[in-house]
Amino acid sequence: MLLLSQKMQGYAEQLKSALLAEEFVQARKMEDKVSAARTAQILLDIPTSSILLYFGEIGWVKAGQVAAHLPQELVSQLLQRMNESEAGSLLAEMPLEIITDLVAALPTELASHLLSQLEADLQQQVARLSSYPEGTAGAEMSPYFLSVTADAKVKDVIAAVREAPADLARTAYIYVVDAENRLQGVLSLRELLVSNPDDHVERFMVDGVFAIRDHDDAMEAAQRIRSRHLKMLPVINAQDQLVGVIGIEQAMDLLAHSMADDFVAMSAASPDESFFTPPKQAIKKRLPWMAANIFLNLGAVVVISSFESTIVQVAILAAFLPMITDMGGNVGIQALSVSIRSMALGEARLRDFWLAVRKEVYIGLFNGLALGALFCVVAFLLEGNFVLGLVAGIALGFNVLVAGVIGGSMPFLIKRWGKDPAMMTGPVLTTITDITGVSIYLGLCTIFLASIMV
What we know:
With 454 residues, this protein is mostly helical.
């Protein structure tokens, strides 16, 4: 049967309509026609109480598959609204990595009770992943993979693949280990299929294997998978024993979350806050920084106050201040976003600092001249004062140059100091560019005050 996009969209709309109407029996009939990921997207528009009823209707196996695609905060809320037996059944059907994250996010007492309902082996795996520090490859890896010894025959490996769980059978790689589980090499399923069934895998395995330590940065693993176009990266411990793998899907999720967190941090918000964060917690996360931002902006207030006598004599000077400061902030955020994105994707390294500076100087000079000239003309047409227009244009052009260089280079400096580049947030950057723009503009206005007043 052909699955056309239009037909699939129709199934999704039928499922959504059934859920909104609370016709859960009808909704259950659509479960095999709509993917778990698509169903999860639909559930985001459904009341929480209806989601719980729907999960009870379709069974915990299917519910676990769908819940794996829901935001962690929403799943946490669902688990807390269920009785412990239901919550334990749902949790048990979810992927190990997601279980580990959820257990860490749930209240301690509830997490302990839910863990006790899981099978002993699953409890051990959760405890093992939880033991790794957050953000390390060990905390993000999957402990499920296929491995064989070098003396295994091709036909035996193929038989093992056929008997493996569906998720493992779809893996792209099979790892070769020694008797102590130390990583020796890797081979692909395609290589197995074209080889002599009686050959030993050591004849055609690749022994130069890219791997990462379990305590290394998970983002480094994700960047390596992306840059080398790998489908999977093995994770080894200090004894070179294979302990897990990070797949391409997990790597892409890490990169996406990292970029999203950086974007949030640039706006001075907390990466821990989401749409499902309760208002009280959101206020606690946002208010302290915004209060601190008042003191940051006092720098611009002090600079403007120091030029009070100049502004009093020519009040129109104040009219152009927002344009100069806002343009600097916008240009700086552009450069900052590009640099942080490039660093997150592994496109730029610390050694590229001067390359980033040169690039932003070149861009800043060109954009500064163009925007400064344009603003000069606009100011002249508005006020009919050439000197005022020239001063405003020069101030805006110079601020564009400074903002671009600061925004493009500061993430590299912060990274060199061992900090998160995203801590160079938008409000901090705009405060710097505000002070720079105001100082240049009002300083030039003071110098040429006599000509402006003519």
